[in-house]
Amino acid sequence: MFRFLRRRDAEVPAEPVDVPAEAAERATTFWQWWDDNLPEIASALGDSEPHRIENLVAEAVAGVHPDLTFSIEHGEDAAYALVISSQADPELRPYTDAWMAAAPAADTLWEYHDSVPAVPDPTEVTVNLRGEKYPLDQVRIAAQVDEDEGLVDVAVYHPGFHALDDNARRALTFLPLDATLGERLAADRLGRVETAEAEPEGTIGLLELRELVRELDRNAQ
Fold first, then answer.
1. Which ranges of 47-111 does DSSP label H, i.e. alpha helix?
2. What band does 76 get if pLDDT is binned at 50, 70 and 90?
3. For 122, left (φ over 0), alpha (ψ -120 to 50), or beta?
4. What ranges make up the beta strands (E) of 16-139?
5. pLDDT 10s digits, 127-144
6. What is the pTM of this model?
7. Given Cys at both, which of 2, 3, 67, 106 links 111, Cβ 3.0 to 4.6 Å?
């Protein structure tokens, strides 16, 4: 979709601040701006001209916090989804939490996410790397649950690993996990992540991994 994913230069505060209060105030300011500018945003997207509003949205997101990124995607239930992400940085979570808490209710046009969501079915996704296609339904996972820590250690295998260099192999290791679990759940519940050069014994698929991690997360609440 329209993936902007901008990271702004951080501003260092001159003195200590009450982060939750500041985050709530900034979130309120953003949503007031969003309500005022939503007709222009919807018009630009309807015309397939997202560049008309990219800088406007980027500045508004930077007002919540300059280190946040954003993207506008196809929604799961709405036409569009506005995603603001802390990229799993715990220092930024108060800002995304406040932003999400103040968000308007989703409707048929817009829904809102405070982290990159999981795709509905990762096994239907095909990743393009180095000009080749890698179906994620071929990914196999060896998972080891540490219930005391509330984490799952995983080894990821894809039969296409052998044809990839180290950077691309690393990308194909983490992309299926993010697509399966979403940014926040992956950050919270995955422990050690390894790339398996050969398929381990007793592996599971991505949808089985999703259910395993979600169940662990529910039990850890």
1. 51-64, 93-101
2. confident
3. alpha
4. 69-74, 80-85, 110-113, 126-129, 132-135
5. 988 788 999 999 999 999
6. 0.69
7. 106
